[in-house]
Amino acid sequence: MGCSNCGTATGGKPNGCKSNGGCSTGGCNRMNTYDWLRNLPMANTEDQCNVVEISFSKGTRKDFYRNTTLQLFEKGDLVTVEGVSGFDVGEVSLTGEIVRLQMKKYGVKEENPEMKKVLRTATDRDLDQRRINKDREPEAVIRSRAIAKQLNLNMKISQVEMQADGRKATFFYIADGRVDFRELIKVYAQEFKVKVEMRQIGARQEAGKVGGIGSCGRELCCSTWLTDFKSVNTTVARYQNLSINQTKLSGQCGRLKCCLNYELDTYLDALQGFPNDCDQIQVAKGNAYLIKKDIFKNLMWYALPDSNKQYPLTIERVRKIKSLNRQNVIPEELEPVEVTSSKPVEVEPEFVDVVGQISLRSLERADKKKRQQKKNQQQQQRSQATGQKQAQAPRQQPAKQPSSQPQQKKAEGGRPQQSRHKPNRHKQPEGKKQGKTDA
Predict the structure, then answer these.
(1) Distance (Å, whole) CA 49 – CA 319
(2) Over the Cα atoms of the chain, what is R_g?
(3) Would the pTM of this model clear 0.85, i.e. be above it?
(4) What mean pLDDT do residues 67-86 have?
């Protein structure tokens, strides 16, 4: 029964907190109570309290039972107790003298003859039967809601709790007003074959049974330790200078958060030092209206009608202006004080800058290196291309020589070589040429 922080020994008892069966940190069960009287020595064992507190359904419901057996139970033990026409199985949540204080808190008398008894330590058969009946609860919730809708009843079935032996079922419901469920009980008894008990709860109790995480990041107070629910209204938020926003002020249950009452007494004590009749003061610029009261700095914030700016004034200055107004004297200025924040100014680190002005030298170096490598590769390719051209040029000359040798052989064979020059078409005959020479 120990939590993960404690660890569990071979005997089934936690090692860390030494609570011998239950976790004293409150992490194992809902509504866990710390037994601060556990190590208190007893002078007379006959005066020892024989009543134990038993929790059901993971701590959502608790009741007191008389221990008539000769066995001493410890916190965290599973026991079988008297139920309605049968038995039920629960877990021991408190033992010893702390139980008397709890009984006094809830108005339960130790000598009450109608108090039910603890029968025995829970056996394996009892635990198996409880597990079987607990598995019926989710299906019973769905079916019971459908039946209530068919009968046109303005109610919501929140949870169904089965007794360990399966002879009784408690139906927890939410309703705005009174509901006539006489016919509903008959249908439930015929449908589920159990003895039916109807119990009305509020929205806050439903949230405590369902559980969840609040806006503060912790488990809901109603499901961990809060048992008595006080009324919460919007006046509580006004005393604490909170904006009346239902979305932010409402909890999981849809009602105003219970934690609004936690600091209310502190605010009421602090507001006693502020004047009550200073909601409006008059100066030369007009009437200044009170906006809020700061109990931490003892300042009162006012706003003038011609501007949206708020002016912080000390309590002494407000009382002085109010006394002057009673004497029909109108001061010239409000004389606000300068509010200096004690919070150190955060210096922006160097890497937080406007986009485009960030100098990433590592990326620039890598880009420059890539461009240089690409340029070197292009130069190598060009040098290789020029080397290949120079190597191919001398090889082409000896290839032309074999073609000129056959022409020389033909010329040596007696065949006249053809002149490449074109013949002169205007060449004169030889006779005429000779005649001219003779003459």
Answers:
(1) 60
(2) 50
(3) no
(4) 89
